[in-house]
Amino acid sequence: MDPAYPLITVGDPRLRQPALAVTDLTDGRVQQLIDGMLKAVVAHNGVGLAAPQLAHPVRVLVLASRPNPRYPEAPLMVPTVVVNPVILAYDDHRQKGWEGCLSVPGQRGQVHRYRQIDVEYLDRQGKLCRQLWQGFVARIFQHEYDHLEGQLFLDRLESPADLYSEAAYQALLG
Predict the structure, then answer these.
(1) What is the pLDDT of residue 2?
(2) 73 tagged catalytic
(3) pLDDT tens string 11-63
(4) How high does pLDDT run on average in the chain?
(5) 132 belongs to a structural domain
(6) Which residue range is the domain that position 131 belongs to?
(7) Of these residues, 73, 120, 144, 149, which one is catalytic?
(8) Total domain count for the chain?
């Protein structure tokens, strides 16, 4: 992984700051950040990553679902760069599911998320896009979007009993 983009972890106050909108996608630093995010999400076996996790308080996230050691059942998708996302609609149904976070190492939690989400955003070239994500990818988006708002999945736990160590989570899987 590029040492210019180390992950920050829970306890670092920068994870709790709301991110600012990207105003110039042609800025080389923004494009370099996006390249670093795409490398970092793969290097850390993530399925998504938000710029604040790399100590950059801007509204950029990457969705990069694929089977990997942390998420062996994850669906495969083309990595998607999402800039300045706006949530247009949620469906009426939420479901509880397991989440982990590269910025909260060694922990997994059961979190309620909407099953489907309609989002408008810019791609890395500045093209306006609209996407309806469902299931696991909708969960990834909501998790990463929370980072843009200065929130962690820990904030969404309904009970302390919903938080597991990574070892306890793996033991549940058998």
Answers:
(1) 44
(2) no
(3) 999 999 999 999 999 999 999 999 999 999 998 899 999 999 999 999 999 99
(4) 94
(5) yes
(6) 13-173
(7) 144
(8) 1
Whether the full predicted model's pTM is greater than 0.90, yes or no, is yes
Does residue 5 lie within any of the structural domains?
no
Give me the CATH number covering residue 155: 3.90.45.10
Classify residue 1: in a domain, yes or no: no
pLDDT of residue 1: 39
Angle at 68 between CA 138 and CA 173, to 5 degrees: 85
Rounded CA-CA distance 39/43 in Å is 6
For residue 30, being part of any structural domain is answered with yes
